[in-house]
Amino acid sequence: MSKLPRPDMTMSGPVVAAIAVVLGAGVTAGLDLALLWWVAVIIGVVVAFGFVAWAAPLIPDERGAGSGGATEEGTALHKTLVVPTALLLAVVSGLLSAWLLDLQLQEWAAALLGGAIGAALAFLLFHRLSAMLALSFAAVFAAGILAIAVTAAVLYFSGITPLATFERMLEYGTRPNSMVQIINDGVTYYLAAVAVAIGFKMKLFNIGVDGQYRLAALLAAAVGGYLVLPPVISQFVVIVTAVAVGGVWAGIAGYLKVARGVSEVISTIMLNSIATGITAYLLTEGRLAVEISTNNIGTPPIPESGWVPGIPATFLGSEREIFGLIFLAVAVGIGYWIMLNRTRFGFELRATGQSKTAAEASGVDVKKMVFLSMLFSGMVAGLVGLPQLLGSSHYYALDFPTGIGFIGIAIALLGRNHPVGIVFASLFWAFLNQAAGILPFDGIPQEIAVIAQATIVLTVVVVYEVVHRWGRRYEQQQIGRQLGQTTETTPEPAAVSHGPEHGSDEGDDSVPGRSKEDGTDDKSGGEAQ
Amino acid sequence: MSQELNVMESVTKRRPKGWARWRVLTLLMAVFVSLAGLRVITGQDMLTDAGTVRTTLTFAVPIGLAGLGGLWAERAGIINIGLEGMMIFGTWFGAYFAWSFDNPWIGLIAGTMGGMLGGLMHAVATVTFAVDHIVSGVAINILALGAMRYMSILIYSDIPGAGAAQSPVAPSFPTLNVPWLPEALAPVAQSGTFLISDLASLVIGLTTRMSALTLIAILLIPITYLVLWKTTFGLRLRSVGENPDAAESLGVPVYTLKYIAVVVSGGLAGMGGVFLAVVASQIYQEGQTGGRGYIGLAAMIFGNWRPGGLAMGAGLFGYTDALQVRGGGAAIHALLLLLAVVLLVVAVWQVRKDRKGIAIAGFLAAVVLLLWYFSTDSLPRELATYSPHVATLLVLSLASQRLRAPAGVGKQWRASRS
Fold first, then answer.
1. Confidence check: pLDDT of A500 > 50
2. Which of A217, A401, A405, B279 shows its CA 20 to 30 Å from the CA of B190?
């Protein structure tokens, strides 16, 4: 891209972005006439990306990565990893949005919009994707490919053709009804994963989400079923009950950890089992349960005024409804993000998670933090059962879904505890579950989905760990090199020093003592869990 | 000077020499005597009869084996929450190979190997790649559940009596009996005398119909103690768990030892799985492990990362499980009385130590338990099932500040050369 001639002028960022979008959309629309829509989108986004890359040096420097990440652009890491990752991400998101829009719009319009979205993202990603984030994405991609390979191998060795199986899953998983199911499951998984992630951010393992949500759902269902309240108030009371029960149940573990030093891993596991016992005890006829059908007992159904209405999914082409409590999940996600990044509590939480001693030394009350984060984790966990309870089943019976807490752990790991990452992870998880539902009809065990899920969790954490370590070492080399440079020469004008001709093959010399720093830093390589 | 004096004082304050060695035995005897007393007072013969002893062993062995697995791993600094998954591997492979070769010993080997495979995965993730230990363990648990169901569907689909959730009936291990002792002791056991008949029941329970694998499992506890505490290898392995940096600087092969420990850990958990599948039920069933891997871990923490304490923890779980399975809602109800008395003793003890908060809490809990005991006749079945879990929580919260985990446990350690 640096070989192409450039006009001797500057362009402002928004102008480049606008041209890129027009270019992407135009190329896509044009090619759509001759080629398949997805080929057109890919080419359109790639062209737009090429233009963005070409125009990048023309943009005056107040934009771009110059503000935060010093001089990330132009380094070898940036060229070999960040740019391709940005390109891949732009293409994938363009394709996905085109495909989603295709359900609503004409094919050409969807392709055009997809191209435009892809191009806009190409501009954003090219300029804003930081090396660390790109590394994370690359790790997830690599792990995904590894997991697919392992799954294919498992299928192959059991005498099943992998490609046909994947195709079948993809076809079934993208049917309208399947997609509604995926979204609904995803909402539940999302809440569970956020509950787990709050603890993870602090290096607290709340394995007890499972027990917390089941107990909370049972008691909330009982409250909703036995107390007949006016509309809005009923839902409110049910939700508050669930939050309170979840919070109390997790609070026990938090208290034991803080006051008595009991490992939260063990205490939450015990509390899970005890919750199972209490639910079994309460869910018998004569206590909280009534007969629901011939061999099922549950709490009395919540009257219709206490339900949360669903959202009709006609825009996906399905008759079914999306849980109305999806908005609750969105609110929880936003609240989680705000809490982490915009409040003192969140700052202290992350600080404690990264180094307990440093946090303590700077005046953070670690014990209070442990207790509160456990409490918040449990409160969110209390919400997990509600979309199902208020949106679909309306009572808590023997067949209420169990084990979502453990799924939440896996999803939080997959989404790297990030509020947006968890969204994709939970949708992906739900997709695998749903898509595998067709396999038994072909005589293929649907547990292949579970194998795929477990493999992807393992590979993601392993690959992320490795990539993260490389990234850190590389970053330190860069810093060392830069320190060496700035002491030798006076800094050049920034616009020039960003050019790719600089700093790419300077050799591997570095400041002394760097390798030592590497060694010490490797140990903390896993802190971004 | 004054510091030295202080050190001297704290040493002399300790308990007499040799106490540590006999502590486990003393505690066991105290528990046994109080149970015998409880039996006499409440008239619940089920508390100590031979059947209960046998059932206790059956339930305690898998938990104990899982706990031993946890002990090996954690002594080398690796938290192994994947024990549950490794047990699942053990149940499946144990049942499958025992059935297909019609030989339980091949099942034992295969199940142990299956567990070791899980351990190896955990070791690769946590030792080589320094992934967070709990993350890797959770992933292994998910994987084991899915993979074994997948295998069941593939293999058992055409076999009558088997399917996705269970295997065909597998042959079991031979049982061992001591020839004439039980018959001789039977009248003594039935006499109902305090302590003597209880002891007789204990001996009868231990000498009749004991599975060979049970014996092996019981022997593994002293073997683990000897290997980990009395050999150079064990010392090195534990040093890796306490301070890997120091161990490495002395030339101890840290990675190798961690690998060995985690693989052995998986093998022991797998053996626990074989016991569940081949001895306890003679069949592989999905969900058979029922969280025993986790409970084994709890038993190990309960036992302060020591084999003897771990055996006691496993025994506690096994005992309450046994009472519950034998239909002993009433017997477990009797245990409430014991628990109340123990809590009262703890409360008095804490008053002497001038810790009023705990003393009051203990006292209140004891009063509540006593009220509960006298106002009901039996414990609801659903709650009785989970009494061991409540007991674990109670014990951990009362004793956890005296427990000491290996100093380097859970650390994502990497060798300094890399």
1. no
2. B279
Contacts of A270 in chain B (CB under 8 A): 298, 389-390, 392-393
- Three-state DSSP class for residue A307: coil
CATH of span A174-308+321-435: 1.10.3470.10
Is the minimum CB–CB distance between A154 and chain B shorter than 8 Å? Answer: yes
Please give the backbone phi and psi of residue A297, each rounded to the nearest 5 degrees, phi first.
-120, 155
Kindly state the DSSP code that residue A80 receives in the 8-state scheme.
Answer: I
3-state secondary structure of B102: coil
Distance (Å) from the C-alpha of residue A262 to the closest C-alpha of chain B? 6
Q: Give the pLDDT of residue B19.
A: 63
Chain A environment of B397 (Cβ under 8 Å): 256, 260, 262
Lowest mean pLDDT among A45-49, A134-138, B91-95: A134-138
Q: Taking 70 as the threshold, does the pLDDT of residue A72 lie above it?
A: no
Best of B83, B135, B136, B148 to disrupt the A interface (most A CBs within 10 Å) is: B135
By the 10 Å C-beta count (0-12 exposed, 13-18 middle, 19+ buried), A63 is classed as middle
Tokens of A72: 């990330």
User: What pLDDT does residue B4 have?
Assistant: 42
pLDDT digits 0-9 by tens, B319-338 = 888 888 886 677 778 888 88
Nearest by CB to residue B382, choosing from A281, A406, A462, is A281
Query: Do B132 and A526 lie within an 8 Å CB cutoff?
Result: yes
**What are the angstrom distances between the C-alpha of B236 and each of B233, B253, B255?**
5, 9, 12
Q: Residue with structure tokens 């084990």?
A: A403
Q: Angle of helix A264-282 relative to helix A209-226, nearest 10 degrees?
A: 30
Instruction: Report domain extents, chain A.
Output: 13-129, 174-308+321-435, 477-528
How many other C-beta atoms lie within 10 A of the C-beta of residue B36? 21
* φ and ψ of B343, to 5 deg: -65, -40
Give per-residue pLDDT as tens, B47-70: 788 888 889 999 999 999 999 999
Q: How far apart are CA A382 and CA A23, in angstroms?
A: 48
Q: What is the DSSP string of A204-265?
A: ---TTHHHHHHHHHHHHHHHHHHS---HHHHHHHHHHHHHHHHHHHHHHHHHHHHHH---HH
C-beta separation of B46 from B52 below 8 A = yes
Q: Give A342→chain B minimum CA distance, Å.
A: 27
Q: Which residues, in sequence order, are CB contacts of A276 under 8 Å at separation 6+?
A: A211, A214, B386
- What tokens appear for B308 in the block? 């003897």
CA distance A275 to chain B (A): 9
Binned at pLDDT 50, 70 and 90, residue B17 comes out as low
Contact A526 B401 (CB under 8 A): no
How far is residue A188's CA from residue A174's CA, in Å, rounded to a whole number?
19
- What pLDDT was estimated at residue A73? 57
Alpha helices in B179-286, H assignment, sequence order: 181-191, 196-207, 212-230, 232-242, 244-249, 254-274
* Contact indicator for A74, A82 with CB cutoff of 8 Å: no
A2, amino acid identity:
S
- Counting DSSP H helices and E strands in chain A, the numbers are 21, 4
This prediction has a pTM of 0.82
CA–CA separation, B209 and A72 (whole Å): 72
Answer for the pair A297, A286: CB distance below 8 angstroms, yes or no.
Answer: no
**Domains defined for chain B, CATH in brackets:** 24-327 (1.10.3470)
Place B7 in a pLDDT band, splitting at 50, 70 and 90: very low
Candidates B380, B414, B418; nearest CB to A281: B380
CB pairs < 8 Å spanning A and B: 144
